Amino acid sequence: MKTIKIMVNGLPGNMAREIVKKALPDSRFCVIPYSLTGPDIDESSVKIDSLDISLIKPDKKDSFLSDHTELMQSVIVIDYTHPTAVDSNCQWYYTNHIHFVLGTTGGNREQIIRAVKSSDICAVIAPNMGKQIVAFQAMMAFLAKEYPSLFNGYTMEITESHQRGKADISGTARSLIPDFQKMGIDVHEHDIFMERNPEIQHHQLGVPEQFLDGHAWHTYTLVSDDQTVTFQFTHNVNGRSVYVQGTLDAVRYLNQKVMEKNQGQVYSMVDVLKGI
Predict the structure, then answer these.
(1) How many angstroms separate the Cα of 246 from the Cα of each of 20, 127, 226, 269?
(2) DSSP annotation of 26
(3) Are residues 238 and 207 in contact, defined by beta-carbon separation less than 8 angstroms?
(4) S-S: 156 plus which of 60, 187, 207, 211, CB 3.0-4.6 Å?
(5) DSSP labels, 141-164
(6) Is 235 a residue of the active site?
């Protein structure tokens, strides 16, 4: 198979850095030495292993594109930029015919999906790139479809813990809210409790100290109205490797769809699971 050129946006962020480190020795991928970054980043470049990657600030990305048009039309972009940059970055991608994998949270997802579907590109858009967690999400969606009102009368608590630098609520937790609502639970996005305090994470929740700067712990607790029955769903991820591998699988899947000349298609990680 032809080597897949990728541009990893979001450096010098941790997730983007981990993807580059994983992709560099993999002969299936060729990491181009450019990355979109935020306006407040002081560095002009970052070195990962032997690769020097130039960092492109928002006000420079159009001039960068004019100098690298042919290159950019042959790459698949991986976006792990800040949630506040998602809308403008995605607009830049579909306006300039750039296929992309969106792994970060944030942005107006419905608007982004509509725009991609009316464009000539394809994208994988998912709030979580961990394949096993995606399978858990699919399981919850199945329960909601097949057993509506299963948990009528139950109350629910959702707690999610991520590293202090994560700016917004867990996209995974948010994505499950509609399924739990279909199963009869009166729960909403504002009910999700975010924990970002490393002291509490380590000493009360039990997050290992070495993973305080990179983890994703989620617990969904359901209690019957008479307090006699409790269900609890938990998925705890330490580190970022599960998301890195899922993201690169999404790139491979998207590249396959691009090679098939598909246009205006938005794929989920469930599609990736079925297709890889």
Answers:
(1) 14, 12, 41, 8
(2) -
(3) yes
(4) 187
(5) HHHHHHSTTTTTT-EEEEEEEE-T
(6) no
- Is 203 marked active-site? no
**pLDDT per position as a tens digit, 52-96:** 999 999 999 999 999 999 999 999 999 999 999 999 999 999 999
DSSP strand pairing (192-195 vs 155-162): parallel
* Nearest by Cα to 101 from 129, 74, 73, 120: 129
Q: What's the whole-model pTM score?
A: 0.85
Between CA 241 and CA 237 the distance in angstroms is 9
Q: Among residues 57, 166, 202, 235, which one is catalytic?
A: 166
Both tokens of 155, joined, read 């109350």
Q: Is 137 helix (H, G, I), strand (E, B) or coil?
A: helix
User: Contact, 233 vs 173, CB < 8 A?
Assistant: no
E-only strand ranges, 104-243: 122-125, 155-162, 192-195, 215-223, 230-238
CA 85 – CA 95 distance, rounded (Å): 15
Delineate the domains of the chain, giving CATH numbers in brackets: 4-125+241-275 (3.40.50.720), 131-238 (3.30.360.10)
Q: Which two tokens stand for residue 77?
A: 């972009």
User: Per-residue pLDDT tens for 128-186?
Assistant: 899 999 999 999 999 999 999 999 999 999 999 999 988 889 989 999 999 999 999 99
Q: From CA 263, how far away is CA 248, in angstroms rounded?
A: 20
